[in-house]
């Protein structure tokens, strides 16, 4: 294998390594962000459902103080959202009957009222309007309850994780590229040296073989001058010419590889 072919093989190795690293990083980053999205969205829906169930009276419910070191179950369990949360009630004609702020006070109600009107007109029962997530539920008495939850924290957390994943992945790919490039250069260096030694050996051997072949041809031609041509002398000359042709081909191939390198 020539030095050029070794270098080509090295580039393929780097390309395959980087592609494998990219796919693995893409898979891990995607799975981490999907898991984060699932649990944050699960907490949002849990809060909205509780808002409708207690009709905005979540501030009356108290929960146990968190431990200094939360357990694994506590980490992945939904909890009350700390940002603004409101509940609105509408009659069958769409007129607002009641508004209550679970957190955030009157300011939260005024800020959320427009979103509540939009949520009432949405076809889907759940969704998001801006940075507010909503859930709508129509009771048997015809009253429609709309719960709104400020999900700014969850949205920002998701974006931070996405941007951090992209940045860390890009940085990791750059480091991996230089590491693979440097290590592959060291790995192929012995092969390049062996290739050069082989080429040098062929060149030296061809030069060394030309001298005895020239002597054999000269002796054969002298034999023909003294004793005349024979089947054996002609055969010897043909084999010498054949060997010279093979040597010239080896030298030509070696020089071509050196020029390509």
Quick check: average pLDDT? Answer: 82
Continuous helix count: 5
Give me the Rg, rounded: 41 Å
Number of E-type strands: 5
Order of helices and strands: HHEEHEEEHH
Question: Can you give a write-up of this model?
Answer:
The protein is α+β, with helices and mostly antiparallel strands and 261 residues long. Among the domains are: 68 residues, 2-Layer Sandwich (Beta-Lactamase), CATH 3.30.450; 71 residues, Helix Hairpins (Orthogonal Bundle). It has five helices and five strands. It has a five-stranded antiparallel beta sheet, with helices on both faces. Helix 1 packs antiparallel against helix 4. The longest helix is centred in the last third of the chain and has 76 residues.
Topology:
Elements: H1 3-53, H2 72-75, E1 85-90, E2 96-103, H3 105-121, E3 126-129, E4 132-138, E5 144-150, H4 152-227, H5 231-260
Antiparallel strand pairs: 1-2, 1-5, 3-4, 4-5
Helix pairs in contact: 1-4, 4-5
Comma- or semicolon-separated keywords:
single chain, 261 residues, alpha+beta, Beta-Lactamase, Helix Hairpins, five-stranded antiparallel beta sheet, 5 helices
